[in-house]
Design a protein that fits this description.
Layout: E1 4-15, E2 18-24, E3 36-37, E4 40-42, H1 49-61, E5 66-77, E6 81-91, E7 102-108, H2 120-130
Parallel strand pairs: 1-6
Antiparallel strand pairs: 1-2, 1-4, 2-3, 2-7, 5-6
């Protein structure tokens, strides 16, 4: 049986050099339950990715963000479903958001990102974000 596949968008929000990390609520899938992620959600059929990201953040956090360039595309297969995670660098004019769909949040320096228990797809994204750039 073929796994359900979803395109998911994620907001990599950076403010004062720190990254916004969100802790997921409990889920029926233990491998993503209460793990850390970059906020976002599924793209609906025919929806523009940036519009989907703004919509998801508004629904989950009651927050308006500015969506910038795509920074990574990650493919990951979980035991029960597969996703293509498209991450966008984002900013916001305020940090006045609400925890409507998450348990907790943290603002972390890039070096601290690897200290959290991320979902597997977001862990791949953290690896990309923290990779050292070669010296020129």
């Amino acid at each position: 049986m073929e796994k359900k596949h979803s395109v998911v968008v994620a907001a990599v929000v950076v403010r004062n050099g720190k990254y916004l990390c969100m802790r997921r609520c409990r889920s029926r899938y233990l491998y993503i339950s209460e793990r850390w992620e970059f906020p976002g959600g599924k793209v609906e059929q025919g929806e523009d990715e940036k519009d989907a990201l703004r919509r998801e953040i508004k629904e989950e956090m009651d927050w308006d963000i500015n969506v910038g360039r795509r920074t990574a595309t990650i493919h990951h297969e979980y035991p029960d479903f597969a996703i293509t995670l498209k991450a966008y660098l984002c900013t916001a004019d305020t940090d006045d958001f609400k925890l409507l769909e998450h348990l907790d949040y943290k603002w972390l320096d890039k070096e601290e990102l690897k200290t959290l228990n991320w979902t597997a797809a977001d862990k791949k994204l953290v690896s990309r974000l923290t990779r050292k750039k070669p010296a020129r």
